[in-house]
Design a protein that fits this description.
CATH topology of the largest domain: Rossmann fold
Structural class: alpha/beta
Largest sheet: 6 strands, mixed
Strand content: 15-25%
Bound molecules: zinc ion
CATH architecture of the largest domain: 3-Layer(aba) Sandwich
CATH class of the largest domain: Alpha Beta
Strand order of the largest sheet: 5-4-6-7-10-9
Distance between the termini: 41 Å
Shape: globular
Number of helices: 10
Radius of gyration: 19 Å
């Protein structure tokens, strides 16, 4: 019988109760669920931010140093969205908006763009540099759930679902906010990439002593990666939320840019 003393024995994905510590990292342990094979780190951010709310000189420098990180993906993401979605007049919500750069692209296409960003530092920077008002309330917060049900034509979670404490709750909440006929898009690291699979093998052969590249995939830092999905797992999770996957065409530059990621779209019937 499970002891229920270890909060991480409960699988975040299928909620079965006998996940076990499987891959020991320098900081933290990856738990594995024997039922659905989900891998997740024994770390949660919780509800309190450890950041300063005001934008200090250090904070501004830090954001500036990372401003171009992943930025090249946004125009490609816009093209993906435009495969299925007409943006003029659309209501959109970007969950994990970062500095709001993707929202700016949506606005240029005539969409109304709202955004959620838990990092106070990023919200402050986005306001200062782009004049955007990002929301701190997460998608499952009453702020959205009671005032914005079935509101959005488009919702996006770019590089987000691997960061959240509870991915099932985040996507369930997102599905509630989506209009019937609306579309949700996400991308997230792919657990089936060679370096992850090789790391699993090396770890097994070394009797659990060598994590190899696994520590590159996870981080116990605030807003770090807490879970890495397989395509099958994240697709099934979207379906559990009542969403229907839609084929995404990745060609040329997009195919190269997203080669280590899973990119999914789904619509709400
Ligand atoms: Zn599970």
């Amino acid at each position: 019988m499970p002891t229920h003393q270890d909060p991480f024995s409960r699988c975040k994905l299928c909620h079965e109760d006998d996940s076990t510590p499987t891959y020991q990292l320098g900081k933290g342990v990856i738990y594995r669920c024997p039922h659905c094979d989900f891998h997740f780190l024994n770390h949660l951010d919780g509800t309190t931010s450890k950041e300063e709310a005001s934008l200090s000189a250090d904070g501004r420098r830090y954001i500036k140093s990372r401003i171009t990180e992943g930025e090249h993906l946004h125009p490609l993401r816009l093209q993906l969205v435009q495969q299925h979605c007409s943006l003029a007049g659309a209501m959109s919500l970007d969950i994990g908006a970062g500095l709001g750069q993707f929202m700016l692209l949506l606005q240029q296409q005539g969409a109304t763009a709202l955004g959620i960003e838990p990092s106070a530092l990023r919200r402050a920077y986005s306001h200062e540099v782009y004049g955007l008002e990002l929301n701190p309330q997460l998608a499952d917060d009453d702020y959205w759930q009671s005032s914005y049900p079935e509101t959005f034509d488009l919702m996006t979670l770019w590089d987000v679902i691997e960061h959240v404490d509870d991915p099932r709750s985040t996507l369930t909440a997102a599905a509630t906010l989506l209009k019937p006929g609306g579309l949700i898009y996400l991308d997230t690291p792919d657990r089936k990439v060679f370096s992850y699979r090789l790391s699993q093998i090396v770890n097994r052969l070394s009797g659990g002593t060598i994590p190899l590249f696994l520590s590159h995939f996870y981080s116990s830092l605030h807003y770090g990666h807490k879970q890495i999905f397989t395509r099958r797992q994240i697709t099934a999770l979207l379906q559990d939320c009542g969403l229907v996957p839609v084929p995404v065409l990745l060609d040329g530059p997009a195919n190269r840019a997203f080669s280590r990621k899973i990119v999914l779209a789904a619509h709400k019937p």
